[in-house]
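Objective 1b: paired records.
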Amino acid sequence: MRMFSGALAVPFLVLGACKDTSCDADVPPEITLGQGASSAFEPFEDGQDIALTIAPQGGMGISVRALTRGVTTDNLIDLQLITEIDGEQTGFFETNGILTCQEDGYGLLWGQVVGFNPEEFPDVDALLALDGEQVDVIVIATDEQDRTAEGRATVTLRVSR
């Protein structure tokens, strides 16, 4: 029985993942927000309970994955990560990320945390006041050809010590 290391299998999967797919199809840009692990994606359900996670830019936020169509994949994209409560912005961060083409023809973005303004929510005590709040999570992705997709989901924030 032959065994293959994961290191050999990964380049094959990465190189073969976009073959014969429509990841970069000429369709109107769209983005769906959700969560998942590995290459899995589950869209957020309206009002779904979501726990905070540590944000790479500092502070705490909501871990997000995004599934896209009509936005160029396998290249760097510009991102705006926004949170709103009752229509009022509670966090805004600009960053970038790689949108990876999947075998099903969709682009997948992961590793993003949509945070809260650290000046308004400087510590866990301030964030604890948000427990049970309905939060709009917004991700705006713009590719190198200025195609923009905006995704929005309303979730219920769960904060604990």
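Objective 1b, second protein:
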Amino acid sequence: MFWLSASVSYACQNSTSADRLIYIGDSHTVGTFGQQLTKNLEKVTDSKPIKRYGVVGSAAGHWNKKDNSSIRKLKIGYYCDGDGQVNGKAPKADFPTPTQLFQGAEPMVVIALGTNDVNSKCNVSDKTEQMAAVKELISQVRPNSKCIWVGPTEQPNDGPIAKNCGQTKIKAFVDNLKQTVSSRCIYIDSREIKLNGKPILPNRSDKLHYDGDLAEHWANAVSLKIQETVSPQSIKSNYQRPAPKVNHAN
């Protein structure tokens, strides 16, 4: 979903501020969930700058390249702070690579990926092969940066991922993802997030994505989990629990 020139200032270029927090992800990050999570992170982190980069259709393997050629092949849409949300296009040539994103000074990196990894890798029988791209991505987060990984939510039985994979393979993949990521990052299991005692399921007609109050509820719940796990010495925890949201899931 990106290039560089020392003489040109690009809108999507990554900030070099030591205080910035990096947040990357897929279409959920591009949409309402990502918008709300960014707002919440600013509260959790006492207004430290949040640099959000999302690319629709992206999985871990798209983000772990040394250049941005892989992610720029995805032409569905993207988000970066300079450009805002752009639909139906590939990221521009200035979209940053992990080398540019993870520079080592950032106190926290948030990675919200997994849904597209499940869909593309659930039928791969070798668990090590399933997680190769994930391991490569988290290895690029510098040792002094706190790493948070937001995993995928439950999938509806009649949704495209469940039809492709089946619930048994989905569970096995996400369990493997959680175990793999937890070796380096704090893993937030979105399957555990409930509303009215039930898992949150996509409320858009494609049965993949979230809109409105339900997307905000997911982001709010993730924010609370981040607040509970980050170090108060490096991240200020002042985010307050929001009022309950209405469940619009189908």
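The longest strand covers residues 50-55. Residues 1-10, 232-241, 243-250 have pLDDT under 50 and may be disordered.
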